[in-house]
Amino acid sequence: MKMVKSTLAILTTAAALGLSGMAHAGATLDAVKNKGFVQCGVSDGLPGFSFTDSKGEYKGIDVDVCRAVAAAVFGDASKVRFTPLTAKERFTALQSGEIDVLSRNTTWTSSRDGGMGLMFTAVTYYDGQGFLVNKKLGVKSAKELDGATVCIQVGTTTELNLADYFRSSGMKFTPITYSTSDESA
Fold this sequence. Notes:
With 185 residues, the chain is α/β, with parallel strands linked by helices. It has 2 domains: 5-115, Periplasmic binding protein-like II (D-Maltodextrin-Binding Protein, domain 2, 3-Layer(aba) Sandwich); 135-184, no CATH class. Helix content is 34%, strand content 19%.
């Protein structure tokens, strides 16, 4: 169940980096320049990717991507503002214009790339999926999880992959969905 997790750098990022000549991208870039900062959507708190430290400052690889876009557009990496978003909120925020760029853990799929009017531009992180099970249960294989209750974050590709795995293995499970990463941990 390998899946590509990537930071979603969409059409506006491509425009900001000068990689696209589309009229819409040019309008977005002009709007970003006029307001004087890049509004960047990041995860709602995922250590290593985007989180706030003890001083309330954003840190992580997704945050660094946002700062790089600001540096490319303005010559100043500090000209960025961050909007923390759950998996469920991220695409709505991007499509509505609430944010200019989405830089958070997001799986690159052809339906998102083509069907949502978005364009992925670069992979910043690869990962896979697995199950974390209490050792006391003595589970040695995912095939032993028939009938299990599984915590999952709503609105993610992981949620779909979980359903596919159980269905293709002829097993049943009960999902418990959460809105944020912290809740599902």
